[in-house]
Amino acid sequence: MLEWPRRNSYDGRFAEGTKQLQVVGLTGGIASGKSTAASLLGELGAHIIDADVLGHRAYDPARRRSKR
Predict the structure, then answer these.
(1) What secondary structure does DSSP assign to 40-57, as a single string?
(2) What pTM did the predictor assign?
(3) Pairwise CA distance, residues 44 & 22, whole Å
(4) Which of 4, 8, 15, 62 is deepest in the core (most CB within 10 A)?
């Protein structure tokens, strides 16, 4: 039986208690759990930047009119 190689995602450089900034990007298809994962990370104290929200704000006609 063929199996994918197992990888350990733990990296000792980012051990608990360090002050190192970690950036995590969530990608995936529709209904793949990105929002759920972001919510869970937010509950753990992560700062969430939602690119969809930023994109919608950038193209919102009402916001564009008020900038002129």
Answers:
(1) HHHHTTPPP--HHHHHHH
(2) 0.57
(3) 13
(4) 15
* Tally of structural domains, the chain: 1
pLDDT in tens, 28-53: 999 999 999 999 999 999 999 999 89
Residue 22 lies in a domain: no
Is 51 domain-assigned?
yes
Contact 19/29 with Cβ under 8 angstroms? no
Q: Report the b/e string of 10-35 with b at 16+ CB within 10 A.
A: eeeeeeeeeeeeeeeeeeeeeeeeee
3 part of a folded domain? no
Helices (H), the chain: 34-43, 51-58, 61-66
